[in-house]
Automatic annotation (TrEMBL):
Signal sequence range: none
Protein's name in the database: NEDD8-activating enzyme E1 catalytic subunit
Catalytic reaction equation(s): ATP + [NEDD8 protein] + [E1 NEDD8-activating enzyme]-L-cysteine = AMP + diphosphate + [E1 NEDD8-activating enzyme]-S-[NEDD8 protein]-yl-L-cysteine
Keywords for the protein's UniProt record, in alphabetical order: ATP-binding, Ligase, Nucleotide-binding, Ubl conjugation pathway
Lineage: Eukaryota, Fungi, Dikarya, Basidiomycota, Ustilaginomycotina
Pathway: Protein modification; protein neddylation
Domain E2 binding stretches: 354-437
Length: 438
């Protein structure tokens, strides 16, 4: 019979079932003695208490990543975990969000996930909150040591990032105000895990330019020199469909329409010796869907949990600070230190400059802001030192400030003037300094 030695020297029966003693024996082995990379301050007894009774962890998101993270944390010996999610379970979640069953459809994800993990891992306490992260204030976030995000929304990530960095900035001398923020993300076969130490490492906002805009292909490539199956599908939907069907729109959910596009795209692909046009790819390109892949979630969630474990135990140095994973062709991971941006509106101290020409209309300034990749804003409102320049809402203010849109930059501003940009997706006010160029 197999027996597993635990830290205190006694032996427990590993075959007896998933009792606490056996479940935690593996974890105890890792934290009962220092390893080659362990921090000097490592103290096994203290580490055990810290992991088992002091460390409070928050998981944001109980979807594809969140389910994995919750189960991993519970099985790694974390004892108090909170989880926030605003969604209810949909039948389409069941293939990968493995804490949910058909009978749970319609119920809050956070609540069902908490019930399931508590039932399967006795001794762990999971506190669910069904709602938005914005419902909670600084005092709520202050109670946690580690915050792990398994989100699919840029907006929510920006909000929690700005909140956590701000807590550290408000009280820089208070060690407890520095929360380790671990962020996981997946997109199809690609994913990443990163560690954010507020004000110390780069933050989420520092790296917004890593985000992809919606994929679009140059029309000349689609029309003349296709190289990818996607080009053929785009050709069928963007050029061939209107030529044949006139004003009739494509209905993404109509199988006959998808079938028609598939046939056209396949014929074109054959002419150009391109392979890979399939039904699901056609549907994906037309609907612009990137499928959620369970194995990518599992890998990224494991990486996030491992970082949380390292924070809670100091058993090994944590990730510095960005790990990317790609399973598109083979399996590849790469780790690097993403650098802090000095003009990051959340964690940087320097003001951000924008080069503009003074004979441009204000309208063009707004377009420039929308096109700036690392700002990720859609409907910015502007104000200057003297008051509103252009407000997108409410309607009365929009009407009153609309005449400013056609005025020139030079009429409204001096070189070096500051403007404040607000937008629904910005969790903060963005200050920008205008720099006139010829
Ligand atoms: Zn930053």
């Amino acid at each position: 019979m197999a027996a597993v030695a635990v830290a205190n020297g006694s032996a427990v029966n590993a075959v007896a079932g998933p009792s606490w003693a056996t479940r935690e024996a593996h974890i105890d082995k890792v934290i009962s003695r220092p390893g080659p990379w362990t921090d000097e301050s490592f103290e096994p007894a203290e580490v055990k208490t810290s992991l088992r009774s002091k460390c409070k962890t928050l998981v944001i998101g109980a979807g594809g990543l969140g389910c994995e993270i919750l189960a991993n944390l519970a099985l790694t010996g974390f004892k108090e975990i909170h989880v926030i999610d605003m969604d209810e379970i949909d039948v389409s979640n069941l293939n990968r969000q493995f804490l949910f069953r058909e009978k749970d459809v319609g119920r809050p994800k956070a609540v069902v996930a908490a019930e399931y993990v508590e039932r399967r891992v006795p001794g762990v306490k999971i506190v669910p909150y069904h709602g938005k992260i914005q419902d909670k204030d600084d005092a709520y976030y202050m109670q946690f040591n580690i915050i792990i995000c398994g989100l699919d929304s840029v907006e929510a990530r920006r909000w929690i990032n700005a909140t956590v960095v701000n807590m550290a900035q408000v009280d820089p001398a208070n060690q407890d105000a520095y929360k380790a923020l671990i962020d996981g993300g997946t997109e199809g076969f690609k994913g990443q895990a990163r560690v954010i130490l507020p004000t110390i490492t780069s933050c989420y906002e520092c790296s917004l330019d890593l985000l992809n805009r919606q994929t679009t292909y140059p029309i000349c490539t689609i029309a003349n020199t296709p190289r990818l199956p996607e080009h053929c599908i785009e050709w069928a939907s963007v050029l061939e469909w209107p030529r044949v069907h006139g004003d009739k729109n494509i209905d993404n959910d109509n199988p006959d329409h998808i079938q028609w596009l598939l046939e056209q795209a396949s014929a074109r692909a054959e002419r150009f010796n391109i392979t890979g046009v399939t039904w699901s790819l056609t549907q994906g390109v037309v609907k612009n869907i990137i499928p959620a892949i369970a194995s990518t979630n599992a890998i990224v969630a494991a990486a996030c949990t491992q970082e949380a474990f390292k924070f809670a135990t100091t058993a090994a140095p944590f990730l510095n600070n960005y790990m990317m994973y790609s399973g598109n062709e083979g399996v590849y991971t790469y780790t690097y230190a993403y650098e802090k941006r000095k003009d990051c509106p959340v964690c940087g101290g320097e003001s951000r400059e924008l080069e503009i020409q003074k004979d441009w209309p204000i309208e063009r300034l707004i377009e420039m802001l929308i096109e700036t990749k690392d700002l990720q804003i859609k409907k910015p409102s502007l104000s200057g030192e003297k008051g509103p320049i252009y407000f997108q809402a409410p309607p009365q203010l929009e009407e009153q400030t609309r005449p400013n849109l056609t005025k020139t930059i030079g009429e409204m501003f001096e070189d070096g003037d500051g403007i404040t940009v607000t937008d629904a997706s910005l969790p903060f006010q963005l200050g920008i300094v205008l720099k006139f160029v010829a």
